[in-house]
Specification:
mainly alpha; single chain; 11 helices; 180 residues
Length: 180
């Protein structure tokens, strides 16, 4: 890939990595082969990413950003049930990318992926309550990530609606008087 932007190169590498997962296990993918598939040199790969793990994590950010590019619907309704709609959209996203999230989990990268994704979404998840405290943001982000991690480990047995209901009921308990 000559003359491409750094962002375009990063996207090409991450996309090539995901397509390679259809053919082989993550551990068997070499940086050399990944760079070849992305049509970049090996040195260009390392200018974009420190490791194959970084490329895998970048794909989460890329896919998430595309899916949630217009979150104005959620921000506009903050405090009026937007967290339920957001969580449903989020669970749908995870199920649609199940193979990818399983790969993250199997390679010990799931928590790191959610760390990148969740803190920016914590305000929506908490319907604005987390915006005043970094601890509240971390609590909401970590809690939702843990629920999703468990769901993946349980092979997506529960429906998205069941998980949304669970999340909302736990949040309601936390908001109850005397719950602090």
């Amino acid at each position: 890939m000559t003359g491409g932007t750094a962002g375009g190169m990063r996207e090409a590498i991450a996309t090539a990595l995901i397509s390679m997962l259809d053919e082989m296990s993550y551990t068997s993918i070499s940086v050399r082969e990944l760079a070849r598939r992305a049509h970049v040199s090996r040195s260009s790969f390392y200018r974009c990413f420190g490791s194959k793990d970084d490329a895998l994590l970048y794909y989460a950010q890329l896919a998430y950003a595309r899916r949630f590019a217009d979150d104005s619907w959620a921000r506009a309704d903050a405090g009026r049930g937007s967290s339920a709609a957001f969580m449903r959209k989020r669970f749908d996203f995870v199920r649609e990318h199940a193979r990818y999230f399983r790969t993250l989990l199997q390679n010990g990268l799931l928590d790191q992926a959610f760390e990148c994704l969740d803190l920016s979404m914590a305000d929506i998840l908490s319907e604005g309550a987390a915006s005043s405290s970094p601890y509240a943001r971390a609590l909401f982000a970590g809690g939702s990530a843990s629920v999703i991690k468990c769901w993946i480990q349980r092979d997506f047995r529960e429906s998205e609606d069941e998980l949304v209901e669970l999340f909302l009921s736990v949040a309601a308990c936390a908001d109850a008087p005397g719950a602090a």
